[in-house]
Amino acid sequence: MTDNFISIKTFSYPHEVAIIRGRLESEEIECFVQDELTLQVNPFYSNAIGGVKLQVRESDVERAMKILEENDSFDEEKLSESVIETKNSVSDSSSSMDKVCPYCSSTEISKPRYSAQAFAVSILLLGFPLPFISKEHHCFDCGKDFKK
Protein backbone atom coordinates (compact mmCIF):
# COMPACT_ATOMS: atom_id res chain seq x y z
CA MET A 1 0.00 0.00 0.00
CA THR A 2 1.44 3.35 -1.00
CA ASP A 3 0.87 6.49 0.97
CA ASN A 4 -0.20 9.31 -1.37
CA PHE A 5 0.71 12.94 -0.80
CA ILE A 6 -2.17 15.30 0.00
CA SER A 7 -2.08 19.10 -0.40
CA ILE A 8 -2.81 20.68 2.97
CA LYS A 9 -2.07 24.35 2.24
CA THR A 10 -1.19 26.60 -0.69
CA PHE A 11 0.99 29.70 -0.75
CA SER A 12 1.45 32.47 -3.30
CA TYR A 13 5.25 32.39 -3.26
CA PRO A 14 7.88 29.74 -2.46
CA HIS A 15 9.51 31.66 0.40
CA GLU A 16 6.24 31.61 2.37
CA VAL A 17 6.28 27.83 2.70
CA ALA A 18 9.83 27.55 4.06
CA ILE A 19 9.13 28.08 7.77
CA ILE A 20 6.11 25.80 7.93
CA ARG A 21 7.91 23.13 5.93
CA GLY A 22 10.84 23.29 8.36
CA ARG A 23 8.45 23.04 11.32
CA LEU A 24 6.76 19.96 9.86
CA GLU A 25 10.06 18.31 9.03
CA SER A 26 11.29 18.94 12.58
CA GLU A 27 8.30 16.87 13.74
CA GLU A 28 9.44 14.12 11.34
CA ILE A 29 6.57 14.68 8.92
CA GLU A 30 7.70 14.10 5.36
CA CYS A 31 6.80 17.07 3.14
CA PHE A 32 6.73 17.74 -0.56
CA VAL A 33 6.36 21.20 -2.08
CA GLN A 34 4.75 21.11 -5.49
CA ASP A 35 5.45 23.88 -8.07
CA GLU A 36 8.12 25.49 -5.88
CA LEU A 37 10.79 25.57 -8.59
CA THR A 38 8.36 26.76 -11.26
CA LEU A 39 7.51 29.82 -9.19
CA GLN A 40 11.13 30.46 -8.26
CA VAL A 41 11.88 30.76 -11.97
CA ASN A 42 8.78 32.84 -12.80
CA PRO A 43 6.79 34.12 -9.81
CA PHE A 44 4.15 35.69 -12.08
CA TYR A 45 2.76 32.21 -12.79
CA SER A 46 1.57 31.89 -9.19
CA ASN A 47 -2.11 32.56 -9.83
CA ALA A 48 -2.12 30.58 -13.06
CA ILE A 49 -0.88 27.33 -11.49
CA GLY A 50 -2.57 27.78 -8.13
CA GLY A 51 0.46 28.74 -6.06
CA VAL A 52 2.91 26.55 -4.17
CA LYS A 53 1.28 23.49 -2.65
CA LEU A 54 2.52 22.02 0.63
CA GLN A 55 1.86 18.29 0.62
CA VAL A 56 2.22 15.60 3.29
CA ARG A 57 1.52 11.88 3.35
CA GLU A 58 -2.08 10.80 3.99
CA SER A 59 -1.08 9.18 7.26
CA ASP A 60 0.43 12.48 8.54
CA VAL A 61 -2.38 14.86 7.52
CA GLU A 62 -3.97 15.02 10.97
CA ARG A 63 -0.71 15.79 12.79
CA ALA A 64 0.31 18.33 10.14
CA MET A 65 -3.03 20.14 10.40
CA LYS A 66 -2.60 20.47 14.18
CA ILE A 67 0.83 22.01 13.67
CA LEU A 68 -0.58 24.41 11.03
CA GLU A 69 -3.33 25.46 13.44
CA GLU A 70 -0.70 26.20 16.11
CA ASN A 71 1.24 28.36 13.64
CA ASP A 72 -1.90 30.14 12.39
CA SER A 73 -2.89 31.06 15.93
CA PHE A 74 0.31 33.12 16.26
CA ASP A 75 -0.78 36.69 16.93
CA GLU A 76 0.91 39.07 14.48
CA GLU A 77 -0.26 42.10 16.50
CA LYS A 78 1.80 40.92 19.47
CA LEU A 79 4.81 40.64 17.19
CA SER A 80 4.36 44.18 15.87
CA GLU A 81 3.90 45.48 19.44
CA SER A 82 7.13 43.81 20.54
CA VAL A 83 8.96 45.31 17.55
CA ILE A 84 7.68 48.77 18.53
CA GLU A 85 8.71 48.24 22.16
CA THR A 86 12.17 47.11 21.06
CA LYS A 87 12.49 50.15 18.79
CA ASN A 88 11.43 52.46 21.62
CA SER A 89 13.86 50.88 24.08
CA VAL A 90 16.69 51.24 21.58
CA SER A 91 15.81 54.89 20.99
CA ASP A 92 15.59 55.48 24.77
CA SER A 93 19.01 53.97 25.32
CA SER A 94 20.63 56.07 22.59
CA SER A 95 22.51 59.18 23.56
CA SER A 96 20.68 62.44 24.22
CA MET A 97 22.64 64.03 21.37
CA ASP A 98 20.43 62.27 18.80
CA LYS A 99 17.74 64.39 17.20
CA VAL A 100 14.15 63.29 17.71
CA CYS A 101 10.95 64.10 15.83
CA PRO A 102 8.78 66.43 17.95
CA TYR A 103 5.58 64.91 16.51
CA CYS A 104 6.17 61.17 16.98
CA SER A 105 9.45 60.97 18.98
CA SER A 106 11.07 58.89 16.25
CA THR A 107 14.82 58.91 15.67
CA GLU A 108 14.30 58.02 12.01
CA ILE A 109 14.97 61.54 10.77
CA SER A 110 17.31 63.08 8.27
CA LYS A 111 18.50 66.51 7.44
CA PRO A 112 18.29 67.41 3.75
CA ARG A 113 21.65 68.46 2.43
CA TYR A 114 20.40 71.28 0.24
CA SER A 115 17.41 73.60 0.50
CA ALA A 116 15.31 72.75 -2.54
CA GLN A 117 13.78 76.22 -2.91
CA ALA A 118 17.08 78.12 -2.73
CA PHE A 119 18.63 75.54 -5.04
CA ALA A 120 15.91 76.12 -7.68
CA VAL A 121 16.05 79.92 -7.39
CA SER A 122 19.82 79.92 -7.87
CA ILE A 123 19.45 77.85 -11.04
CA LEU A 124 16.83 80.24 -12.43
CA LEU A 125 18.72 83.45 -11.58
CA LEU A 126 22.35 82.41 -12.05
CA GLY A 127 22.10 79.49 -14.45
CA PHE A 128 23.95 77.19 -12.08
CA PRO A 129 23.03 75.74 -8.67
CA LEU A 130 24.37 77.06 -5.38
CA PRO A 131 24.22 74.67 -2.45
CA PHE A 132 22.19 76.24 0.34
CA ILE A 133 22.17 74.15 3.48
CA SER A 134 18.74 73.68 4.98
CA LYS A 135 17.91 73.62 8.67
CA GLU A 136 14.83 71.45 8.15
CA HIS A 137 14.64 67.83 9.17
CA HIS A 138 12.35 65.17 7.72
CA CYS A 139 10.80 62.36 9.80
CA PHE A 140 10.54 59.08 7.87
CA ASP A 141 8.00 57.59 10.29
CA CYS A 142 5.33 60.34 10.32
CA GLY A 143 6.43 62.13 7.13
CA LYS A 144 6.48 65.63 8.66
CA ASP A 145 9.16 68.29 8.21
CA PHE A 146 10.33 70.37 11.16
CA LYS A 147 13.07 72.76 12.19
CA LYS A 148 15.32 71.85 15.08
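(the above was protein one; protein two follows)
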Amino acid sequence: MPLKILPAFLLLLPLGEIAGFVLVGRALGLWPTLALVMLSFIFGMALLKRQGIGILRRMSAEGRTGAMPGRELLRPAMLVIASLLLIVPGFITDILAILIFIPAVRDLAWKYISRRFVVVGQPKGFSGSSQRSDRGSPDIKVVDLDEEDYRRTSDGKSPWSGKNLGE
Protein backbone atom coordinates (compact mmCIF):
# COMPACT_ATOMS: atom_id res chain seq x y z
CA MET A 1 0.00 0.00 0.00
CA PRO A 2 1.50 3.37 -0.96
CA LEU A 3 2.36 5.52 2.02
CA LYS A 4 0.16 8.37 0.76
CA ILE A 5 -2.97 6.20 1.02
CA LEU A 6 -2.25 5.05 4.60
CA PRO A 7 -3.74 8.09 6.44
CA ALA A 8 -6.94 7.89 4.41
CA PHE A 9 -7.14 4.14 5.03
CA LEU A 10 -6.60 4.61 8.77
CA LEU A 11 -9.43 7.17 8.83
CA LEU A 12 -11.88 5.41 6.53
CA LEU A 13 -11.61 1.89 7.96
CA PRO A 14 -12.97 2.80 11.42
CA LEU A 15 -15.68 4.91 9.80
CA GLY A 16 -16.60 1.97 7.57
CA GLU A 17 -16.65 -0.35 10.59
CA ILE A 18 -18.97 2.03 12.45
CA ALA A 19 -21.26 2.19 9.43
CA GLY A 20 -21.20 -1.62 9.31
CA PHE A 21 -22.19 -1.80 12.98
CA VAL A 22 -25.10 0.55 12.33
CA LEU A 23 -26.34 -1.37 9.28
CA VAL A 24 -26.03 -4.81 10.89
CA GLY A 25 -27.45 -3.51 14.16
CA ARG A 26 -30.44 -2.07 12.36
CA ALA A 27 -31.04 -5.33 10.48
CA LEU A 28 -30.43 -7.80 13.33
CA GLY A 29 -30.74 -5.81 16.54
CA LEU A 30 -28.25 -4.97 19.27
CA TRP A 31 -27.71 -8.35 20.94
CA PRO A 32 -27.28 -10.44 17.78
CA THR A 33 -24.82 -7.83 16.46
CA LEU A 34 -22.80 -7.97 19.67
CA ALA A 35 -22.95 -11.77 19.59
CA LEU A 36 -21.53 -11.80 16.04
CA VAL A 37 -18.68 -9.51 17.09
CA MET A 38 -17.90 -11.68 20.12
CA LEU A 39 -18.07 -14.90 18.08
CA SER A 40 -15.67 -13.55 15.47
CA PHE A 41 -13.30 -12.49 18.27
CA ILE A 42 -13.41 -15.93 19.91
CA PHE A 43 -12.97 -17.71 16.57
CA GLY A 44 -10.03 -15.44 15.69
CA MET A 45 -8.34 -16.10 19.06
CA ALA A 46 -8.83 -19.87 18.72
CA LEU A 47 -7.45 -19.82 15.18
CA LEU A 48 -4.47 -17.72 16.22
CA LYS A 49 -3.75 -20.08 19.12
CA ARG A 50 -4.02 -23.09 16.80
CA GLN A 51 -1.70 -21.65 14.17
CA GLY A 52 0.55 -20.19 16.82
CA ILE A 53 3.73 -18.34 16.24
CA GLY A 54 5.29 -21.43 14.67
CA ILE A 55 4.56 -20.25 11.15
CA LEU A 56 6.36 -16.97 11.79
CA ARG A 57 9.36 -18.89 13.11
CA ARG A 58 9.38 -21.13 10.04
CA MET A 59 9.23 -18.12 7.70
CA SER A 60 12.04 -16.42 9.62
CA ALA A 61 14.20 -19.56 9.47
CA GLU A 62 13.68 -19.87 5.72
CA GLY A 63 14.46 -16.19 5.29
CA ARG A 64 17.74 -16.53 7.19
CA THR A 65 18.84 -19.39 4.93
CA GLY A 66 18.09 -17.29 1.87
CA ALA A 67 15.28 -19.52 0.65
CA MET A 68 12.13 -17.92 -0.62
CA PRO A 69 9.13 -18.87 1.51
CA GLY A 70 6.98 -21.11 -0.63
CA ARG A 71 3.31 -21.72 -1.06
CA GLU A 72 3.30 -24.24 1.77
CA LEU A 73 4.02 -21.36 4.15
CA LEU A 74 1.51 -19.04 2.55
CA ARG A 75 -1.58 -20.90 3.76
CA PRO A 76 -0.70 -20.84 7.49
CA ALA A 77 0.59 -17.26 7.21
CA MET A 78 -2.66 -16.16 5.57
CA LEU A 79 -4.61 -17.95 8.30
CA VAL A 80 -2.65 -15.98 10.92
CA ILE A 81 -3.55 -12.77 9.08
CA ALA A 82 -7.19 -13.86 8.88
CA SER A 83 -7.25 -14.64 12.59
CA LEU A 84 -5.86 -11.19 13.39
CA LEU A 85 -8.52 -9.62 11.18
CA LEU A 86 -11.22 -11.62 13.00
CA ILE A 87 -9.94 -10.36 16.36
CA VAL A 88 -10.36 -6.74 15.27
CA PRO A 89 -13.97 -5.76 16.00
CA GLY A 90 -15.90 -4.93 12.88
CA PHE A 91 -17.58 -6.47 9.90
CA ILE A 92 -15.33 -5.17 7.12
CA THR A 93 -12.29 -6.85 8.66
CA ASP A 94 -14.38 -10.00 9.20
CA ILE A 95 -15.35 -10.04 5.51
CA LEU A 96 -11.67 -9.66 4.55
CA ALA A 97 -10.80 -12.55 6.89
CA ILE A 98 -13.51 -14.75 5.36
CA LEU A 99 -12.18 -13.94 1.88
CA ILE A 100 -8.73 -15.11 2.96
CA PHE A 101 -10.22 -18.53 3.78
CA ILE A 102 -11.14 -18.99 0.09
CA PRO A 103 -8.35 -20.90 -1.74
CA ALA A 104 -8.75 -18.88 -4.95
CA VAL A 105 -8.13 -15.67 -3.00
CA ARG A 106 -5.03 -17.19 -1.41
CA ASP A 107 -3.80 -18.17 -4.90
CA LEU A 108 -4.25 -14.59 -6.09
CA ALA A 109 -2.39 -13.39 -3.01
CA TRP A 110 0.45 -15.81 -3.78
CA LYS A 111 0.71 -14.50 -7.34
CA TYR A 112 0.84 -10.93 -6.02
CA ILE A 113 3.27 -11.64 -3.17
CA SER A 114 5.64 -14.01 -4.97
CA ARG A 115 6.58 -11.33 -7.51
CA ARG A 116 7.64 -9.03 -4.69
CA PHE A 117 9.95 -11.44 -2.84
CA VAL A 118 13.58 -10.48 -3.05
CA VAL A 119 16.12 -13.05 -1.96
CA VAL A 120 19.45 -11.47 -1.23
CA GLY A 121 22.49 -13.71 -1.56
CA GLN A 122 25.27 -13.74 0.98
CA PRO A 123 28.44 -11.86 0.10
CA LYS A 124 31.50 -13.90 -0.90
CA GLY A 125 33.66 -15.02 1.98
CA PHE A 126 30.87 -15.06 4.55
CA SER A 127 29.15 -18.34 3.74
CA GLY A 128 28.39 -20.90 6.40
CA SER A 129 31.07 -23.24 5.01
CA SER A 130 34.08 -20.97 4.78
CA GLN A 131 37.32 -22.57 3.67
CA ARG A 132 40.14 -22.55 6.15
CA SER A 133 43.80 -21.95 5.52
CA ASP A 134 46.63 -24.02 7.00
CA ARG A 135 46.64 -21.91 10.18
CA GLY A 136 43.02 -22.85 10.98
CA SER A 137 41.62 -19.33 10.56
CA PRO A 138 39.11 -18.37 7.86
CA ASP A 139 40.63 -17.62 4.47
CA ILE A 140 39.68 -13.94 4.50
CA LYS A 141 41.81 -10.81 4.85
CA VAL A 142 41.64 -9.14 8.24
CA VAL A 143 43.08 -5.72 8.98
CA ASP A 144 43.83 -5.26 12.67
CA LEU A 145 44.09 -1.59 13.59
CA ASP A 146 45.34 0.08 16.74
CA GLU A 147 43.86 3.32 18.05
CA GLU A 148 46.41 5.53 16.27
CA ASP A 149 45.80 3.63 13.02
CA TYR A 150 42.18 4.63 12.62
CA ARG A 151 42.24 8.18 13.99
CA ARG A 152 41.95 10.95 11.46
CA THR A 153 44.94 13.16 10.81
CA SER A 154 45.04 16.82 11.73
CA ASP A 155 43.72 17.81 8.28
CA GLY A 156 40.61 15.60 8.83
CA LYS A 157 41.59 12.91 6.35
CA SER A 158 41.86 9.23 7.05
CA PRO A 159 45.43 7.98 7.50
CA TRP A 160 44.52 5.19 5.06
CA SER A 161 43.42 7.44 2.20
CA GLY A 162 45.47 6.81 -0.91
CA LYS A 163 46.95 3.55 0.39
CA ASN A 164 46.26 0.19 -1.20
CA LEU A 165 44.99 -2.20 1.47
CA GLY A 166 44.82 -5.18 -0.86
CA GLU A 167 48.58 -5.84 -0.73
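Reviewer note on protein two: DSSP finds seven helices and no strands in the chain.
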